[in-house]
């Protein structure tokens, strides 16, 4: 058994996020494990760019209300206690609803070949975000 210390929280880069979002690392791949886990906190209206994960992603909401959108225009409104499974290769975005903070555990695996498990794409437009939040 091993107790891991709390790691410093970092502000996430504007190149991949709109608004203010912060990440506290929890677990990085080590040994046989390919799992990455982080607590991500979004301020109201903050969101990721469009992106996809080679092996998929699991999001477990710990606080607030958020949004998860996919390319076909579908949007999920997510709440504390709910979990979203994003399948491998699905282009999506996620973030806080306009009037609330949202925090989630982001869990993903690497493919094991040393490549980045996340492919970052363009920002979600303000208009697309507003339409998603109005649903």
What can you tell me about this protein's structure?
The protein has one helix and twelve strands, in the order ββββββββββββα. With 135 residues, it is mostly beta strands. The protein is globular. The protein has one domain: Jelly Rolls, CATH 2.60.120.10.
Please give a handful of descriptors for the protein shown.
135 residues; mainly beta; Jelly Rolls; two-stranded antiparallel sheet; 1 helix; 12 strands; globular
CATH-defined topology? Jelly Rolls
Q: Helical stretch count? A: 1
Structural class: mainly beta
Provide the gyration radius in Å: 14 Å
| CA distance, first residue to last residue | 45 Å
Percent of residues in beta strands:
over 45%
Helix fraction, binned, reads under 10%
CATH homologous superfamily placement: Jelly Rolls
The CATH class name reads Mainly Beta
Output mean pLDDT.
Answer: 94
Number of domains: 1
At CATH level 2, the architecture is Sandwich
Q: Given the C-alpha coordinates, what overall shape results?
A: globular
Largest sheet: 8 strands, antiparallel
């Amino acid at each position: 058994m091993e107790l891991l210390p709390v790691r410093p929280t970092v502000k996430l880069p504007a190149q991949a996020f709109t608004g203010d979002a912060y990440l506290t690392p929890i677990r990085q791949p080590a040994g046989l494990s390919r799992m990455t886990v982080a607590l991500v906190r979004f301020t109201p209206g903050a969101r990721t760019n469009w992106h996809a994960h080679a092996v998929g992603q699991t999001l477990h909401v710990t606080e607030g209300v958020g949004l998860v959108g996919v390319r076909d225009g579908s949007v999920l409104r997510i709440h504390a206690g709910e979990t979203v499974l994003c399948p491998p290769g699905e282009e999506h975005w996620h973030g806080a609803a306009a009037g609330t903070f949202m925090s989630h555990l982001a869990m993903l695996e690497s493919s094991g070949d040393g490549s980045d498990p996340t492919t970052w794409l363009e920002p979600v437009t303000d208009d697309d975000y507003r339409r998603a939040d109005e649903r």
